[in-house]
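Priority: medium. Attachment 1 of 2:
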């Protein structure tokens, strides 16, 4: 009979040095049998909702954190009971790096294979979040390399940054919603005893401490139905910080151009009736995205980044096209990798997959990083123009307005045409007025007459 041992799974770094995640839900319960890479939890980072696969095969022995709890990277979140013999064939192999395991025998004594399980570097098999069964030496970048990479993005100016003392005061053994409730009720959490796991202060602890057990879950301070308070966290919190950083770091310039897109809309109708595009979703965004990619060929300065740390302008020789997507958890800007290499059909498929994934809240952190230029389609909301804020680290963003029928002069005669307004915001450190204007003019020319593409490629 093989021996069993307990393995702790610690919350891993889910991408780009993120320091914490919120447990949204557990997909398993104590006593459940799980297989390697089976999804065991859904967590929300500052960028996206991520499904956590199990790094072990075995039985769930304990869940250390409750849904709604914000957990720091490296803290144990679940323990598994696994066969000692299974650790050598991948069945009980621990995740490497931040998802490390503490291994003991079933009676709590250190396992004979503990050093082997957690002591030697190992290669991680690719899966949903980039960690998994250990098979051999890992080539994972060091923490120093990750810090150097993230240091290239300028920090939020001190004038708008939250002092570290305030941040520290916000973290006394509780979750953000509970801290918010305590503040609104005027309760000092330092004097509230916690009854949750590890002394965690729960909502009930705060309510019982004040006798306010009837405080509605969604309304902090119980001010009746006159206002509803929602904690700022996760994707929405990250987006807000990123937009403030961008607005206070990059000098924005926005230009506008209204164009006659009748020819583009006619092309769109023809493509939808073409068997080559049968089953593909074609919209004005599809054509506009392709037009942006073509216009960039003649105006590459808009596909660049300002490297403050090294005092360099980084010119991208590829295009990772970001598409702003409104989701229930807030605005996200996932990007299509190497979009400039895609055909119109491939671009159509990529756009459909990107939007469907974003609306389902399943966008991965990797899909949200590495963008080089972005598009926001405000036209779907019936809006004509705006002044979009740059995605941090990018030189330009294009806003597409609604396509409307309007009077237009054609060959010196008034006619009803389909028109669209284009808004272009760019970083004036990287792009001067002439370069931005030429790009916008090229984009408008393509959408006014798609045949103009032939003169640009």
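Attachment 2 of 2:
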């Amino acid at each position: 009979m093989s021996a069993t041992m307990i393995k702790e799974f610690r919350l891993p770094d889910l991408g780009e040095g993120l320091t914490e995640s919120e447990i949204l839900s557990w997909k398993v319960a104590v006593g459940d049998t799980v297989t390697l890479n089976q999804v065991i939890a859904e967590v929300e980072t500052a960028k996206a909702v991520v499904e956590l696969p199990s790094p072990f095969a075995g039985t769930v022995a304990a869940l250390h954190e409750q849904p709604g709890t914000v957990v720091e990277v490296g803290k144990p979140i679940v323990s598994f009971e696994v066969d000692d013999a299974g650790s050598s064939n991948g069945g009980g192999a621990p995740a490497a790096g931040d998802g490390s395991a503490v291994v003991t025998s079933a009676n709590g004594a250190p396992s004979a294979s503990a050093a082997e399980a957690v002591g030697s570097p190992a290669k991680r098999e690719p899966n949903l979040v980039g960690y998994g069964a250990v098979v051999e030496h890992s080539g994972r970048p060091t923490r120093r390399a990750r810090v150097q990479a993230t240091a290239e993005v300028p920090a939020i100016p001190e004038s708008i940054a939250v002092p570290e003392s305030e941040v520290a005061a916000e973290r006394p053994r509780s979750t953000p919603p509970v801290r918010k409730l305590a503040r609104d009720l005027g309760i000092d959490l330092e004097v509230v005893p916690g009854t949750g796991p590890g002394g965690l202060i729960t909502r009930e602890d705060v309510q019982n401490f004040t006798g306010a057990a009837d405080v509605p879950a969604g309304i902090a301070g119980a001010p009746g139905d006159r206002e509803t308070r929602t904690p700022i966290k996760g994707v929405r919190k990250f987006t807000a910080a990123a937009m403030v950083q961008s607005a206070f770091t990059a000098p924005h310039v926005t230009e506008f151009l209204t164009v006659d897109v009748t020819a583009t809309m006619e092309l769109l109708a023809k493509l939808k009736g073409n068997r080559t595009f049968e089953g593909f979703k074609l919209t004005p965004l599809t054509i506009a995205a392709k037009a942006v990619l073509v216009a960039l060929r003649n105006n590459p300065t808009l596909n660049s980044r300002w490297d403050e740390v090294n005092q360099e302008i980084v010119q991208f020789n590829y295009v990772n096209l970001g598409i702003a997507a409104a989701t229930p958890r807030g605005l996200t800007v996932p990007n299509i990798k190497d979009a400039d290499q895609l055909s119109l059909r491939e671009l159509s498929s990529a756009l459909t997959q990107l939007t469907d994934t974003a609306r389902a809240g399943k966008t991965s952190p990797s899909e949200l990083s590495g963008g080089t230029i972005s598009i926001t389609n405000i036209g779907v909301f019936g809006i004509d123009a705006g002044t979009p804020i740059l995605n941090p680290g990018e030189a330009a963003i294009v806003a597409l307005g609604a396509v409307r029928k309007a009077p237009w002069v054609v060959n010196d005669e008034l006619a009803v045409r389909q028109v669209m307004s284009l808004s272009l915001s760019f970083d004036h450190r990287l792009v001067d007025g002439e370069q931005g204007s030429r790009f916008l003019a090229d984009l408008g020319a393509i959408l006014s007459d798609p045949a103009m593409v032939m003169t640009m490629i």
